[in-house]
Amino acid sequence: MADTYYYYLSTLLNMNGSDASTTFTDESFRTKTWTAAGNAKLTVTGPKFGTAAGTFDGTGDYISAASHADFGFGTGAFTVEGWLYQAAQTTGRCLFDSRTGSNTGIAIMSSVSSPATSQSRLCAVSNTAVIAGDGSTAFTASTWQHWAVTRDDSGTLRGF
Fold first, then answer.
1. How far is residue 67's CA from residue 72's CA, in Å, rounded to a whole number?
2. What does the DSSP assignment read for 18-35?
3. Which of 1, 3, 66, 86 is deepest in the core (most CB within 10 A)?
4. Conformational region of residue 16, where left means phi above 0, alpha means psi within -120 to 50, and beta covers everything else
């Protein structure tokens, strides 16, 4: 059965490719060009699905696409989701960021809420205020975990 929501996708990054490749292919029908920065690359070691996984060591690594209307969520409903594998949880990580230079937009992060336990938790930031993520659910180190942030038509933002 085909995915009935496929044509609503803004981007689909399955992270398929060859080991050490810096090509991140958008598999949605909108096909944006994604550019690797730092030493962001694909690895064939331990992917959750498909042939590879994106690997980012947390020191200046990211992928980016040109500004696009698809990333300006406005006040409408949206879902941003992915899979996260962290070998350790000593610092927070940005998972998605559509904020502009003026800090307008949405950023989704795994933040370390307790340095003593190094537990990483999901949160969403609008402009500069935390707007979702009560910190009750921690990511587990060395385990693939699904995360999602949604906003429904009434404007309620939720983190999962």
1. 9
2. -TT--EEEB-STT--EEE
3. 86
4. beta
